């Protein structure tokens, strides 16, 4: 049997995976889940990584995989000698990476962890003998919130559902969970979707339902262009069986659905904050309603919850309501009743670092939206807090911040700019929002950046006001993650409060 024929046969946990030579790129949580799965299946696994978590490195020989540590700037000879039949890459490996290019040029199959999970999804089946349905969720912003929301709605509706994927739980871990699930709610990054775009026919996913929440420039360095990023995101709709959910306020997502190759009978379901038409979810006089999943769509609507109810639990910000509409559409496609959706929303809480109020003191509200790692996300935060002192900057990932500054940034009371790419952010304010006072915080040491940010911001606010951390950029230039950035911001706020906010240094704005 040829290598290609053998790979075509590997579409079940019960297939013969023994002896299959697989090179796994990267030893993070994802890479380890791939190696662990393949060794359990009897494959011959070589893991290549430039660095490795000590725990994972110790476990690899225990599970029967080999580890090759060293630079991957060039194709390692150990990889060439191994002659893999498949390369499975962690999402951090871009299409331009030397090892990925080598595999393509050598005709070696390239998978991501999600394709492997799909191929072995029948390890644990439902009572009827079928594997769990998959719901796919992507978008430039709101993926994690919508994934958590969807899983919560499904569980309240009586389905055994689990959030997984880019949310921090590898899909392979969910697929192999002995408890089993009715539905897997899979958050997918553009990186993971690019790898799915490389799938051969037998490895393509057939999700029950899918959504792209929105689209704005992001990860342009990784993908190489905005068009390539868009094409990767569009992969989410491919082969959808029942419901393609899209954002009516974002034309790019509608076009994706129109162009997608889906299973016959799949429906396009729209959502936005306006009046819904038939086959849509939306708002009517403060009610969140469904006009898609009921018999008389032309003349009727089902109430799911109210904006007032969402306000009481801190979920009424416009972009969060959009996430709720998308999650509700996905849950309704699986038959979850409106009453279950209403109940689930009353107990749902947002993650840390997502428009999280970390303190209210001395007239100042301090808001941590460190998860706003691109301009699109930051724009939503600025709309929720007009007139805030805006803490902005970091690793821009090749994205131009000028449009954000010219549209939403002009509403800020002042801007406190952090990060190694401060110059381009300052230039954007000088050109597009010259009336907004700008204060720079030198890169310095990570441990002191947020203390200085808080001192400056507190000095700017006169009376009552809001300080909003919504960086519109990644964190890796100065912090280990967006969570680390948010935690340090919150710690600096608490330190400032503990020191006593009424002293002279705390309330005297610095010079511009």
UniProtKB/TrEMBL annotation:
Subcellular location as annotated: Cytoplasm
Keyword annotations from UniProtKB, A to Z: ATP-binding, Cell cycle, Cell division, Cell shape, Cell wall biogenesis/degradation, Cytoplasm, Ligase, Nucleotide-binding, Peptidoglycan synthesis
Binding site for ATP: 139-145
GO molecular function: ATP binding; tetrahydrofolylpolyglutamate synthase activity; UDP-N-acetylmuramoylalanine-D-glutamate ligase activity
Main location: cytoplasm
Domain Mur ligase C-terminal, chain residue ranges per copy: 353-469
GO cellular component, one term: cytoplasm
InterPro entries: Folylpolyglutamate_synth_CS, Mur-like_cat_sf, Mur_ligase_C, Mur_ligase_C_dom_sf, Mur_ligase_cen, MurD
Stored Pfam families: Mur_ligase_C (PF02875), Mur_ligase_M (PF08245), MurD-like_N (PF21799)
Pathway of action: Cell wall biogenesis; peptidoglycan biosynthesis
Boundaries of every Mur ligase central domain copy: 137-330
Gene3D superfamilies the record matches: Mur ligase, C-terminal domain, Mur-like, catalytic domain, NAD(P)-binding Rossmann-like Domain
UniProt catalytic activity: UDP-N-acetyl-alpha-D-muramoyl-L-alanine + D-glutamate + ATP = UDP-N-acetyl-alpha-D-muramoyl-L-alanyl-D-glutamate + ADP + phosphate + H(+)
One BP annotation, GO: cell wall organization
General function of this protein: Cell wall formation. Catalyzes the addition of glutamate to the nucleotide precursor UDP-N-acetylmuramoyl-L-alanine (UMA).
Family: Belongs to the MurCDEF family.
Name of this protein: UDP-N-acetylmuramoylalanine--D-glutamate ligase
Organism: Microbacterium hydrocarbonoxydans
């Amino acid at each position: 049997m040829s290598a290609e024929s053998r790979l075509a046969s590997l579409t079940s946990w019960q297939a013969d995976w023994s002896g299959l030579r697989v090179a796994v790129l990267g030893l993070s949580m994802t890479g380890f889940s791939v190696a662990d799965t393949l060794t359990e299946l009897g494959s011959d696994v070589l893991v290549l990584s430039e660095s490795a978590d000590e725990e994972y490195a110790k476990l690899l020989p225990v599970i029967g995989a080999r580890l090759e540590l060293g630079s991957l700037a060039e194709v390692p000879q150990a990889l060439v000698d191994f002659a893999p039949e498949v390369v499975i890459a962690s999402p951090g490996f871009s299409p331009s990476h030397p090892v990925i290019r080598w595999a393509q040029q050598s005709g070696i199959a390239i998978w991501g962890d999600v394709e492997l999970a799909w191929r072995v999804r029948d390890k644990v089946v439902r009572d009827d003998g079928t594997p769990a349905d998959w719901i796919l969720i992507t978008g430039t912003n709101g993926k994690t919130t919508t994934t958590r929301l969807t899983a919560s709605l499904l569980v309240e509706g009586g389905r055994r559902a689990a959030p997984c994927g880019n949310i921090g739980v590898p899909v392979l871990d969910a697929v192999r969970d002995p408890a089993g699930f009715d539905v897997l709610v899979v958050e997918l990054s553009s990186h993971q979707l690019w790898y799915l775009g490389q799938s051969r026919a037998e490895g393509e996913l057939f999700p029950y339902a899918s959504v792209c929440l929105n689209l704005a420039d992001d990860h342009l360095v990784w993908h190489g262009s905005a068009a390539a990023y868009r094409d990767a995101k569009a992969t989410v709709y491919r082969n959808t069986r029942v419901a393609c959910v899209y954002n009516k306020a974002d034309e790019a997502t509608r076009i994706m659905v129109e162009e997608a190759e889906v299973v016959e009978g799949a429906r396009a379901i729209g959502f936005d904050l306006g009046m819904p038409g038939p086959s849509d979810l939306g708002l009517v006089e403060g009610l969140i309603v469904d006009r898609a999943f009921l018999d008389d769509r032309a003349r009727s609507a089902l109430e799911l919850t109210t904006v007032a109810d969402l306000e009481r639990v801190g979920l009424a910000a416009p972009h969060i309501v959009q996430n709720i509409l998308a999650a509700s559409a996905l849950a309704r496609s699986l038959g979850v009743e409106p009453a279950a959706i209403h109940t689930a929303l009353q107990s749902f809480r947002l993650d840390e670092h997502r428009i999280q109020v970390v303190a209210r003191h001395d007239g100042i509200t301090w808001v941590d939206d460190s998860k706003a790692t691109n301009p699109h996300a930051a724009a939503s935060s600025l709309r929720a807090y007009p007139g805030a002192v805006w803490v902005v900057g970091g690793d821009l990932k090749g994205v131009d911040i000028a449009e954000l500054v010219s549209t939403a940034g002009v509403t800020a009371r002042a801007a406190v700019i952090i990060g190694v790419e401060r110059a381009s952010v300052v230039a954007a304010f000088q050109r597009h929002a010259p009336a907004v006072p700008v204060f720079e915080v030198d890169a310095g040491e990570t441990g002191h950046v947020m203390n200085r940010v808080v001192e400056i911001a507190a000095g700017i606010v006169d009376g009552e006001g809001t300080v909003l951390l919504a960086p519109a950029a990644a964190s890796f230039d100065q912090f280990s993650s967006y969570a680390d950035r948010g935690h340090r911001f919150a710690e600096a706020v608490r330190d400032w409060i503990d020191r006593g906010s009424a002293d002279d240094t705390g309330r005297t704005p610095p010079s511009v």
